[in-house]
């Protein structure tokens, strides 16, 4: 049974009231922002810096300690520390800063318009594909490029092609190389291959993206390994594994936030004359939360509260957990399904979607579109 059948149909008045209550949660949170939020994000910055330094030192030290039988323990701890640093920088720092969550601090290092994060993709491209297209047209087919990322058929409403038979394998490769998928997403390579984008336009789009990719490759796979001298291969392998771990974790969290069993997609006409209440409803029905506590919240960049993130993308993510209590109560009062579950449960549903929709399947029949909810 899909979420649409479990949620109550809202009248126009209900939708206005629903939106007003959720706007109220935002207003009360904005009024509380201050020093504690600034202190929190600066602690994250320090944690990332110290974890990276510690991880790189241990990677450098692993081979000299081999004679004492300490190579693998030292190397593994170094890789894990570096991976955690990269995860935190990617999710709790970079993603949230780029959303402008800390612009109110007037700190140039935390400015959402200028921050450049430590992955292969440029922040500018992410601002367009994610901040604008995904958050504006969340789960609207043909407008939100994050629906399958042009590689995967995850919803039955997506037109099936024989290519999708390969998607169980493609999904694994995509997870391993996720930062590179993000890096090329805005280039729309499929249009170029189909001859819909000229070579000149592709070269223009590739120039900044290529520079960023090259810079990341040189930093992680040339500079730091060369600094290790005779331990080049050990450090190179450590950097590769740390990046892959970061990629897999990011992939899992993002897919769990958007592609669980109850997540819905919407036709383009659903956003025509969309009201504030309809917008909140679309964000709610296209998002999924994860339950797991404070450690999961921090390691996921607080995207364990994907619903709250889609409601309030420009508010500091460390506030989402407390906001979620009230948001869930509001959804319950209006009879709306609040999609949450453990990480294993939600990711299990994602895996099922990837496997099931690799094969031909019929679109789901829902009780009503978002636009008819107000009738």
Descriptive overview:
This protein has one domain. It has a two-stranded parallel ribbon. The protein has helices at residues 3-6, 12-32, 35-62, 71-98, 123-136, 167-176, 178-185, 189-193, 199-227, 232-258, 276-285, 294-299, 306-311, 320-333, 343-356; strands at residues 289-291, 340-342. The protein is globular, with a radius of gyration of 22 Å. The chain contains 15 helices and 2 strands. It has 375 residues and is an all-alpha fold.
Q: What's the arrangement of secondary structure elements?
A:
Layout: H1 3-6, H2 12-32, H3 35-62, H4 71-98, H5 123-136, H6 167-176, H7 178-185, H8 189-193, H9 199-227, H10 232-258, H11 276-285, E1 289-291, H12 294-299, H13 306-311, H14 320-333, E2 340-342, H15 343-356
Parallel strand pairs: 1-2
Helix pairs in contact: 2-11, 2-14, 3-4, 4-10, 9-10, 10-15
């Amino acid at each position: 049974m899909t979420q649409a059948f479990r949620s109550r149909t809202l009248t126009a008045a209900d939708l206005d009231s629903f939106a007003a209550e959720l706007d109220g949660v935002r207003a009360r949170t904005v009024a509380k922002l201050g020093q504690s939020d600034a202190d929190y994000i600066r602690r994250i910055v320090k944690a990332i810096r110290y974890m990276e330094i510690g991880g790189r030192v241990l990677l450098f030290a692993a081979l000299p300690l081999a004679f004492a039988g300490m190579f693998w323990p030292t190397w593994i701890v170094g890789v894990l520390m570096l991976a955690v640093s990269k995860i935190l920088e990617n999710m709790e720092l970079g993603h949230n800063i780029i959303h402008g969550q800390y612009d109110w601090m007037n700190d140039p290092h935390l400015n959402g318009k200028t921050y450049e994060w430590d992955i292969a993709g440029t922040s500018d491209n992410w601002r367009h594909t994610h901040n604008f297209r995904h958050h504006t047209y969340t789960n609207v087919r043909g407008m939100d490029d994050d629906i399958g990322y042009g590689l995967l058929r995850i919803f039955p409403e997506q037109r099936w092609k024989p290519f999708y038979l390969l998607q169980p394998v493609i999904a694994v490769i995509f997870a391993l190389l996720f930062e590179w998928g993000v890096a090329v997403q805005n280039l729309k390579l499929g249009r170029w291959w189909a001859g819909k984008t000229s070579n000149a336009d592709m070269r223009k789009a590739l120039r900044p993206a290529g520079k960023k990719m090259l810079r990341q490759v040189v930093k992680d796979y040339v500079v730091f390994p060369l600094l290790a001298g005779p331990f080049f291969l050990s450090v190179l392998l450590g950097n590769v594994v740390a990046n892959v771990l970061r990629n897999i974790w990011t992939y899992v969290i993002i897919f769990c936030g958007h592609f669980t069993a109850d997540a819905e997609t919407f036709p383009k006409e659903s956003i025509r004359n969309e009201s504030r209440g309809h917008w909140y409803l679309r964000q709610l029905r296209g998002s999924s939360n994860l339950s797991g506590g404070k450690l999961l919240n921090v390691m996921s960049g607080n995207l364990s509260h994907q619903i709250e993130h889609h409601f309030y993308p420009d508010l500091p993510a460390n506030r989402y957990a407390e906001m979620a209590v009230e948001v869930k109560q509001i959804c319950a009062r209006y009879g709306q399904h609040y999609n949450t579950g453990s990480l294993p449960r939600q990711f299990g549903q994602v895996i099922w979607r990837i496997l099931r929709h690799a094969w031909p399947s019929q679109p789901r029949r829902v009780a009503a579109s978002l636009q008819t909810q107000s009738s």
